[in-house]
UniProtKB/TrEMBL annotation:
It holds the Pfam family ABC_tran. The keyword ATP-binding applies. Keywords: Amino-acid transport, ATP-binding, Nucleotide-binding, Transport. GO terms for molecular function: ATP binding; ATP hydrolysis activity; branched-chain amino acid transmembrane transporter activity. InterPro entries: AAA+_ATPase, ABC_branched_ATPase_LivF/BraG, ABC_transporter-like_ATP-bd, ABC_transporter-like_CS, BCAA_Transport_ATP-bd_LivF, P-loop_NTPase. It comes from Futiania mangrovi. This is ABC transporter ATP-binding protein.
Length: 241
């Protein structure tokens, strides 16, 4: 297999003296959807934020597209073609949908903005209907669509999605996962997804990892992990939406 787009080796991250990530190894290859599942507080979001340089890995190495980004400042990392849709959405609530999308495209020159806009509106038609509405007045599902659309406006090579289904109705969750699948199948977009909704995430993913207390305890294809008894017992019982 070719060199991974994202390679994480031996990464340890701390909050003060408390260790949050314990020697994490993980690869995301080009064109893959890779998911990481785990209970709340397992360290999944910390790993995603560590890739973006905040907090910084104390030990280990993170290589993206052949470059060591372990000690790089966050704004430089994001310029390399990584975009994040963070946990809790974090859209700009006072800005309109259009202004939020313009912020997403901020690092690019103006060429192709209209095409990018058309692409995200095709993916999320609801946003087109809400184009002049303030982000803070959108429903939770619409805000999540906006957070993903804003990330896509920067034309990333790697899309990081942190808990995209959190707190959303099952129908909206289905729409959002369908949009992620379309982006991957139609455009070859590489996606690293952190998600508590293990059933949906593993059905969508080519490969998955399980994180427990800051360590990777299992890995395999999405289909393999869905069949594992330990995964079913810990993450899937009663969790199908």
């Amino acid at each position: 297999m070719s060199e991974p787009l994202l390679s994480i080796r031996g990464v340890e991250t701390y909050y003060g003296n408390i260790i949050a990530l314990r020697g994490v190894d993980l690869d995301v290859h080009r064109g893959e959807i890779v998911t990481m599942i785990g209970a709340n507080g397992a360290g999944k979001s910390t790993l995603m934020m560590t890739v973006c340089g905040d907090p910084r890995a104390r030990n280990g190495q993170i290589v993206y597209d052949g470059r060591d980004i372990t000690q790089m400042p966050t704004h430089e990392i994001m310029r390399l073609g990584i975009a994040q849709s963070p946990e809790g959405r974090r859209i700009f609530p006072r800005m309109t949908v259009m202004e939020n999308l313009q912020m997403g495209a901020g690092l690019l020159d103006g060429d192709g903005f209209d095409d990018d806009l058309a692409r995200v509106f095709e993916l999320f038609p609801r946003l087109k209907e809400r184009i002049g509405q303030r982000g803070g007045t959108l429903s939770g599902g619409e805000q999540q669509m906006l957070a993903i659309a804003r990330a896509l406006m920067s034309r990333p090579k790697l899309l990081l999605l942190d808990e995209p289904s959190l707190g959303l109705a099952p129908l909206i969750v289905k729409q959002i996962f369908e949009a992620i699948r379309e982006l991957n199948e139609n455009e070859g977009l590489t996606v690293f997804l952190v998600e508590q909704n293990a059933f949906h995430a593993l059905k969508l993913a080519h490969r998955g990892y399980v994180m427990v207390n800051g360590s990777i305890t299992m890995s395999g294809t999405g289909a393999e992990l869905l069949k594992r008894e330990e995964v079913r017992a810990a993450y899937l019982e009663g969790g199908r939406h």
